[in-house]
Amino acid sequence: MQYVFYGPNFRPAYLLYSDIFRLGNVRFYKSPYRILMRKSGCGNGFERYANGLLRKFKHPKAMRNKLFIIPDISAEDRACFVFHNPWVTHCIESGYLEVLRNRFPRAMLIANFLDAQLAKQIDIGTVKAHYDAAYIYDEAEAVVLGIGYEPPPYSKLHDLNSIDEPEYDVSWIGVAKGRLNRLIEVYDSLDRRGVKCHFYVVGARRKDRVERPGIVYAKRFLSDADSFEYTRTSRCLLEIGLPKTDALTSRVREAIVYNKKILSDNPRLAHMPYYAPDMVQIFEDTGSIDVGFFFTNVRGYSYSGDFSPVHMLERLERDYESIMQS
Description:
By secondary structure, the chain is of the alpha/beta class. It has helices at 11-16, 34-39, 46-56, 61-67, 87-94, 96-103, 116-121, 124-130, 139-145, 180-192, 224-232, 250-257, 310-325, and strands at 2-6, 26-29, 79-83, 107-113, 133-136, 148-149, 168-175, 197-202, 215-218, 234-239, 261-264, 280-282. It has two domains: 2-155 and 308-325, 3-Layer(aba) Sandwich (Rossmann fold), CATH 3.40.50; 168-295, 3-Layer(aba) Sandwich (Rossmann fold).
């Protein structure tokens, strides 16, 4: 079976799927449009360029088709096309989905949402009418929206060389997204009790920032290698849940893959298969965090590869058989 992915274009999200992008039957495109492949990278300009393209689609059909990327697979192949934001709705409006259905009659079209807040803003009925199936990483939102739940993946990219003594006790990397006050609260509580923290916060507004020695504020994400250094040199990874969702963040999966302790404010962790009190501490009030937890021996999780996106391909193939038979 052939798989074609359009996005995710956000670099940290792309890396979560990178295991499968090395496979011979998986193709990855930053966009469905040729002009975007030349003009832009994986940044925030995608929607702006796409909106400009949609205006050009008033031109004759022949001109429109020249703008589309047509994957180099056979019309006879069993194929699955997976779309991420912002392409889910753009490809409905542009007619790209129609082109794919005409050229690849044995194909299945999937919308895969990696942002629960954005998914709630989209007309999900229109998505269901144009795609064969839609998935979201948030189990609760899947029920609310009436679409499939697809557990978020994680690709192991590094070999973790052992270090005699971690440089930091607790680290965190991510986009602020309404969590800055909580992060500062955790930092101050731990710092007062001698826990060495190392936080890298992206996208916090200047007026909201509170300067601390162990907090770095930035506009952009670190490189892949520099980001991993936060993980490699820390005893424990902090997870602060996103507002209005109890879905686990990628920090949890990263900690499990690399045998790092987890400090989290998400009570759902107590129900996950890898939960163990000596490796995972769940807190509500920052004052109740047991700092002795960070300095006990690391037992490990015996991770078995179940976060790999390869399992998503297996699910897609099962869904393909079901959809094509219906």
